[in-house]
Amino acid sequence: PAYPTAPRLSAPVADLASDYRWPTLAGMMPNPRVCVIGAGAAGLTTIKQLKDRNITNVECFEKEPDVGGIFNYGKEKNGVYDNCYLTISNYMMAFSDMPPTGHRYHWHHSEYKDYLLQYAKAFDLAKHVSFATTVLSVEGGPGRWHVVVQGPDGKAVDKGVYDAVAVCSGTHQAVNQPRLPGQDSFTGVVVHSSTYKNNTEFVGKHCVCVGIGESGADIVREISDVARSTVLSMRGYPFLLSRLGRVFGSENPQGGPSDSFTTRVQHDWLHVSLHHATKWKQWVNRFAYTLGALAFVLFPSLGRGPKPLKDAFNQDNHAPYIDKNTPASPEAAEFILQSLVKSGQGTEGQKFACKNVTFLENVVKGKITTNHVGIKHLEGDFVVFNDGSRARCERLILCTGYKDEFVFLKGNIGDSDVALSVPGGNVRHLYKHIFHPKIGESMAWIGFVRPSTGGIPACAEMAARYWALLLKGDRKLPKNVAEITSEAYAADTELFKLSANVKTLVLFKEWMDDMAELIGCDVKLWRYIFQPSLFIRLGIGTMQPAQYRLAGPGSNPTLAKSAIMSVPVTYTRTFLLNILACSWLRCLHLPYRLPGSGNKF
Known about the structure:
By secondary structure, the protein is of the alpha/beta class. The chain has 15 helices and 25 strands. A 5-stranded parallel sheet has the order 3-2-1-7-23, covered by helices on one side. A 5-stranded parallel sheet has the order 9-20-10-11-16, with helices on one face. Helix 7 packs antiparallel against helix 15.
């Protein structure tokens, strides 16, 4: 159908292409008309943060019949599989304005969907959503976005012009399915992991699984339980994290998830070179972590409660599990360590962390054969690898993920000759992965920040909080946003060069703290020194999203403190002292050893 031409921006092209200035919504209208694309986790929190700033003229379009995005389970649709458990635990996966209560554990996908439903109900978000509605096109320029959708009846509907648009469509829209040499003559069946639900169709088959992301780790484990043979094909060595963190000698008596070690002191050790350690603020914070750590060593009851009976997968906490249904073993620990060393993680750059090692049990048992050199070509019913080895293959399972596509963005930005798109398909070209330097605050990409360790929803919430402040006129984008974005692009591309295809990667603490400063909700540790239990948890406890509600716009200190105090410190005193020592040694450019592994860096 022919749609009306989108309104064109009246600002000169030079303002967009050269000086990086744009018309601003800030202060121009008290309640702008806002379009939100997608009602998954990112879309829901975006609606909520807008409402918190009294921006209520919000319309959201969701192609599914319910909220939840990728977590809307269906046998015939792209999305989660039957036995999918989240790789991030509940306190790190939840939004800061509705933290969970009780035990810290990993949700099943259905439990997280229930959480999103509760979130939508608690804040009356669904009334803003048109379900079973697909966005066909967004055209125009800053402050004037023309939107056309397709309703449940299949007919195109012109929704008119919006002042601002949030793209919350998620990173699971377009399947990344490479075509391998020889695939035309391959006699087996090629399957992409996006269609996987369970291992029923793989019983008794010769299978080759390609890729070892977090879903891939589950899939290869499940398939190898029933297949006649299973080969796991990788193009290198992964950076593996056990979801229960009991690999390199850390006792983890609390049975906490591995993300319970996503702490300020841990990030200070791992990424100290990124902190510009000579700056006074980093030194002040390091002294705060040190003080909190020493207080915990002397008085552990300040940071810890009774030992739980169940671990983060509700398994017996006295049993030595390193992941769901995955017992600890010397062989598994050696595989993780060798993968870490050979991957180059930490020594050559940063790599995406695969937070799932359930497949290692079947590697140890010989049910899975691993190959790290990649596939050369397919030949009949065989897969031929780059080292010359061959594997019989009746089912080739591609766990190769997704790629970012925004097919509904049409034309150019206003009257300019710049395409309305993410430049180069790479969100690192956006300021903080959110704002196009040639558009400004009237369009935001929310949900395209993937921390190497940490939850995407928490990052989406922070992005939405900042955007709401910008639209309300309470904050402004930096004048040199293009320069800042260019510098960050170069730095992150170099930092994450070991996972060059994952463009959304960031470091959790660094990105969240940067956003907190922009919002005005940054955590000032010394403010809580006379609340020792809280002070300890902020420095050496889990970096829960709730900590960013202690102060600043949208603060709820009572709720935040309750959530933070609900979660104990996971470190043993010995392991914590090792981490602290490593942090200081690395800061002073002195050699140190990875705790528990004996490896010197």
